[in-house]
Write a structure and sequence with these properties.
With about 325 residues, the chain is an alpha/beta fold. Helices cover about 45% and strands about 15% of the residues. It is globular.
């Protein structure tokens, strides 16, 4: 039987998305990010940004540009989404009508910023679904996935309820808006390293959001690194976000940040080799318990190592033949 069938036995498997979510606001940067995605492959997602990318007074034109690029032949992998204006903005409905209405079939997801709680997400979901259905993508068949920004007190308080919504596939932490919403009670240093990993209120917010995601098999996405030129800072932030906080995805706001983020979230070759060896022995034992190097392994650890191989494949890592043979098995077996 296929490993996923044996190890999860009909249960929902953890959702895996590309580890880097790259934001682009201007037409120049959107096209540059599309060209880079075509060069590197779908190892990162692109989010076209309407909230911060649109010039004042030109919100409709910006939404039309986003729709046209989504429908462009350069969107060959189908891994481009759009951040809309927040649901309380007068531009939200226009964004939905223009972008979802014209490019529903090509949208990988939409990002909903600044909800104050689950009620705001549900209202936005209803509007998005209505536009998608008119465009031939009904929610009953293939709903447009929702990525929700957790950056308000209300959204953090209801993060578990938001993560539980079936159409939501990712929660992203918006650190700058979250810190700003405390009106000076959290220092500005908590928006960047090391403060973002040590200030108790920020740490608590990140951990609560990540816990909600993992409870409902959703993807937790770490906030941006504002130091756009120093790749070492980006790599350090991504490594800590993954290793210490349980994030499986992270924002990028500059093309130079993409590769360090992807690398930090990609399993090392030693991890891939270990996972391969353990899973090969497990398969030989018909998925019963095994002992390797004096350590017991059973289906609980097999699920972990199976995910290691899936993450490595998603990141475009060149897998050893034995690992590729395991992870590329057809689901039908």
């Amino acid at each position: 039987m296929h490993p996923s069938k044996v190890l999860f036995q009909g249960q929902r498997q953890p959702l895996l998305l590309p580890a880097c979510d790259h934001y682009a606001g201007s037409e120049k940067l959107m096209r540059k990010s599309m060209a880079l995605q075509q060069e590197l492959g779908p190892v990162f997602d692109i989010t076209f940004d309407c909230e911060d990318g649109a010039s004042a007074g030109r919100e409709r034109e910006h939404a039309e540009l986003v729709a046209s690029l989504l429908n462009d032949e350069g969107n060959r992998f189908g891994r481009i989404g759009a951040r809309l204006h927040d649901a309380g903005s007068p531009h939200f409905a226009q964004d939905v009508e223009t972008i979802v209405g014209a490019a529903a079939q090509k949208l990988a997801y939409v990002v909903l910023p600044k909800p104050n709680g689950v009620a705001d997400v549900l209202r936005a979901q209803q509007i998005v679904n209505a536009a998608a259905e008119k465009a031939g993508r009904p929610a009953s068949a293939k709903p447009v996935p929702l990525h929700v920004l957790i950056e308000t007190h209300g959204a953090l308080h209801e993060a578990w309820q938001i993560a539980a919504l079936p159409q939501v596939e990712c929660l992203s932490f918006g650190i700058m808006d979250f810190v700003s919403s405390h009106y000076g009670a959290i220092p500005a240093a908590a928006m960047r390293t090391p403060g973002q990993f040590t200030h108790p209120l920020v740490v608590r917010a990140k951990l609560e959001m990540v816990a909600a995601c993992h409870a409902y098999d959703k993807v937790p996405s770490h906030n941006v690194t504002t130091d756009i030129k120093d790749s070492a800072v980006v790599a350090n932030d991504a490594t800590r976000a993954a290793g210490e906080f349980g994030f499986t995805r992270m924002w990028s706001i500059h093309p130079d940040q993409i590769k360090p983020i992807v690398k930090a979230f990609t399993p090392r070759l030693s991890e891939v080799n270990e996972a391969t060896n353990i899973l090969l022995e497990a398969m030989a034992a018909d998925w019963g318990p095994i002992a390797q190097h004096g350590r017991l392994h059973d289906r609980a650890s097999y699920r972990y190592y199976w995910t290691v191989l899936q993450r490595a494949k998603l990141a475009g890592l060149a897998l050893p033949d034995a690992a590729a043979a395991i992870v590329n098995q057809p689901e039908s077996i």
